[in-house]
Amino acid sequence: MNRLQVQLVALLGAASLTAPALGQTSDHAACYGSSTEVRLSNRENIVLDQNSPNPFAHETTISYKLPNKVTKAELMFYDARGKFIRAVDLTSRGGRSDARGDADSECTGIGRVTVFADDLNAGLYTYTLVVDARVVGSKTMVKSE
User: Fold this and answer.
1) What is the DSSP letter of 142?
2) Average pLDDT, whole number, for the chain?
3) pLDDT at 132
4) Structural contact between residues 32 and 18, judged by C-beta atoms closer than 8 angstroms
5) Which of 125, 137, 138 is nearest to 55 (CA)?
6) Residue ranges per domain, the chain?
7) Given Cys at both, which of 32, 49, 123, 134 links 63, Cβ 3.0 to 4.6 Å?
8) Which of 63, 59, 44 is nearest to 108 (CA)?
9) Is 125 helix (H, G, I), strand (E, B) or coil?
10) What is the 3-state secondary structure (H, E, C) of 25-89?
């Protein structure tokens, strides 16, 4: 579990301990203990979107989001049998936007890969996002005639 999931589970567990069971009423006046504030954000999350359009005939686009702390990110492409086709380095300067103060910080690390697949046979293909030597996610895309 990542840190956000752990915080959410802890928050939900604490809420269930303090809530009365369904159908129970309390004879006591409401008592409010300490409060907890939770700020949720996707700023540091890694996101790999499904390609669009899918299925596709000639080209498709894959969007992603990487936090600034990422040192190496690659998008790896495989055929239906798991045979490696190609890797694309997403951490290069041209691969994603960067925050220099004049850009929206929410857009930091947002990028897009356009896949041209005229020479691929129709069928299933997989793309996998590898960030700092760790597989983060995989998606399947369908190449049509």
Assistant:
1) E
2) 76
3) 92
4) no
5) 125
6) 47-143
7) 49
8) 44
9) strand
10) CCCCCCCCCCCCCCCCCCCCCCEECCCECCCECCEEEEEEECCCCCCCEEEEEEECCCCEEEEEE
Hey, what are 58's tokens? 């000639």
Query: How many CA within 13 A on the CB side of residue 1?
Result: 8
Task: Please answer whether residues 91 and 73 qualify as being in contact, where contact means their C-beta atoms are separated by less than 8 angstroms.
Answer: yes
Neighbours of 51 (CB within 10 A): 22
Burial of 118 (0-12, 13-18, 19+ CB in 10 A): exposed
pTM above 0.70, yes or no: no
Query: In which residue are the tokens 């700023």 written?
Result: 43
Two structure tokens written together for 83: 């045979």
Locate 23 and state its tokens. Answer: 């159908």
- The yes/no answer on whether domain 47-143 falls in CATH 2.60.40.1930 is yes
* Cβ atoms of 113 and 128 closer than 8 Å: no
